[in-house]
TrEMBL record:
Protein name (record): Alpha/beta hydrolase
Record keywords: Hydrolase, Signal
InterPro entries per the UniProt record, alphabetical: AB_hydrolase_3, AB_hydrolase_fold, GDXG_lipolytic_enzyme
Keyword Methyltransferase part of the UniProt annotation: no
Domain Alpha/beta hydrolase fold-3: 145-350
N-terminal signal peptide: 1-21
Gene Ontology MF: a single term: hydrolase activity
PROSITE patterns, per the entry: PROKAR_LIPOPROTEIN (PS51257)
Entry annotated with the keyword Signal: yes
Source organism of the structure: Mucilaginibacter conchicola
Pfam families hit by this protein: Abhydrolase_3
Length: 376
């Protein structure tokens, strides 16, 4: 199995055996996705015991989470901040670690009742790739979740976050459209944000072509993708196009201050640490002044009029404070907000439901919130 990029903040969930090139646009992977993303939601009754003591950066880490992090460390990859973006995309990911833990412990791989297909859609002067996850049921029209993967706007792709997309489609009974937005530094800010909005706008106009219900469209994302989900909803409101019915933001990037309580406490955490976040910012932004842009610093944006939002955070994560801060800002703006923090787990835990009990709980919670918004 080829290596894949370690994800950032935005970035967070996982599993696939397909090779990761970092651009998320390989059509060959779309047809294979149903076979490779069979991780989230598996039986977690197996007893996973860490090989060593809890790490200094996560004394309260759950044993299953620690086993995944131990496996990730065992690959011996160079730290992301020491690499160029193309090279970093070849590093192993938490998804790789989960896959190998499952294999080594003979853990079952649940097959989701979902079909996948790839499609190119227009975005600006070019095209971007999407992967459409459709439940294998006989519904005439499905609600749609437009999903943005994590990776700090720089690394990861649709394959790395295939488990999250599969889990959401399977657990909600909705179509998931996973968006392969352009990555930095090849495509600097605001390329990812422009692509995210273009994909959402395309879905609002073409939902019927993928068996989607144009009146029931939600936005979701992890880490950098969580930022994109909220920023896209703001853009939709300001552009006076149809608003999504809900937002799901999993440990989103929500501001640029790297001296928050969680950045300080979890500066050396894995798989995301403070130096990695600095590296992501350097690669995505054209200059540091852009860190104050309201598309990056969501806590400074006008959040009034946004749809009901769900924010999920992890205890051992530099971005924990970001998620909590944007949740409070949303509430202050009059938005209906539901939040849950999961103790003992790290950034990227969402989507690891096959091996981490807290991840399975988070996936089910997210699905329940989305189904409520869809009226299901």
């Amino acid at each position: 199995m080829k290596k894949r990029s370690l994800l950032f903040a935005a970035g967070i969930c996982l599993v696939t055996a397909a090779a990761c090139t970092g651009d998320g646009s390989k059509k060959a992977a779309d047809s294979a996705a149903g076979d490779t993303s069979v991780m989230a939601g598996a039986d977690t009754a197996h007893t996973l015991k860490p090989a060593g003591p809890a790490p200094s950066w996560g004394k309260d880490i759950k044993p299953e989470m620690q086993v995944v992090m131990e496996k990730l460390a065992s690959y011996g990859d160079k730290p992301i901040p020491e690499l160029t973006a193309p090279r970093a995309r070849k590093n192993h990911t938490p998804t790789d670690a989960v896959m190998d833990v499952m294999k080594e412990h003979n853990m079952p791989k649940p097959v989701f009742n979902v079909d996948t297909a790839g499609k190119d859609i227009p975005a600006g002067d070019g095209k971007i790739h999407i992967r459409v996850y459709t439940p294998k049921t006989d519904a005439q029209a499905y609600p749609v979740i437009v999903y943005y993967h994590g990776g700090g706007f720089v690394i990861a792709n649709l394959d790395v976050y295939d488990p999250s997309a599969n889990a959401l489609a399977d657990k909600t009974g909705a179509i998931v459209v996973s968006v392969a937005y352009r990555l930095a530094p090849e495509h600097k800010f605001p390329a990812a944000h422009n692509d995210a909005y273009a994909a959402y706008k395309w879905v609002t106009e073409n939902a019927a072509s993928i068996k989607g219900d144009p009146k029931k469209i939600a936005l979701a994302g992890e880490s950098a993708g969580g930022n994109l989900a909220i920023a896209t909803a703001i853009k939709a409101r300001d552009s006076k196009i149809m608003l999504p019915v809900a937002i799901l933001a999993v440990y989103p990037v929500a501001q640029s201050d790297m001296n928050t309580a969680s950045y300080t406490k979890n500066a050396a955490a894995k798989p995301l640490d403070k130096p990695m976040m600095g590296w992501f910012v350097k690669n995505y932004l054209n200059n540091m002044a852009e860190a104050k842009d309201q598309r990056i610093s969501l806590v400074s944006a006008d959040l009034k009029g946004l749809p009901a939002s769900t924010v999920i955070t992890a205890e051992i994560d530099p971005l924990q404070s970001d998620g909590m801060m944007v949740a409070e800002k949303l509430k202050a703006a009059g938005v209906t907000v539901d939040t849950k923090n999961y103790d003992g787990v790290t950034h990227e835990f969402f989507g690891m439901g096959a091996v981490v009990p807290q991840a399975k709980e988070a996936e089910e919670y997210a699905a329940a919130q989305l189904k409520k918004a869809f009226g299901m």
